[in-house]
């Protein structure tokens, strides 16, 4: 019984971790996409 309960906890933790992993990549690309757009105008201004 103790082993089964620990396995359930492990599975629940894995589900939570997988959800975090799925959400974080979606947020990261958005930041990466926004940062280059913000940095390029600054680079253009500096060239001017």
TrEMBL record:
Residues 1-48 are annotated as: Disordered. It comes from the Eukaryota. Residues 8-19 have a biased composition (Basic residues). Residues 36-48 have a biased composition (Polar residues). This is Uncharacterized protein.
């Amino acid at each position: 019984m103790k082993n089964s309960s620990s396995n359930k906890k492990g599975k629940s933790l894995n589900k939570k971790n997988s959800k975090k992993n799925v959400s974080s990549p979606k947020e990261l690309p958005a930041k990466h996409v926004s940062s280059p757009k913000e940095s390029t105008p600054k680079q253009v201004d500096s060239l001017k």
